[in-house]
Amino acid sequence: MNFIKIVIVSIIVIVQLVGNLLNAQVDSTELKRFKERRLTRRVLQNALDYNSISYKIDAKINTGEKSYNLNIIFRNAKDSVIWINANHNTGIPVARFLIDKDSTRFLNRIDNKYLLSTNDELKNLLNYDLDFEMIQSIFTAGLLNPEPEKDPVQVFSRYNVYRIDSCYVMQNIKKKKLERLTKKNKIDEYFLHQVTINEQFIITGLKVEDNVNLQKIEIFYKDYTELENGKMFPQTIEIIARNEKGTTTINLELKKIKVDQDDLDYPFKVPEKYTAIDLRKTEEN
Question: What average pLDDT does range 75-87 have in this prediction?
Answer without folding.
Answer: 95
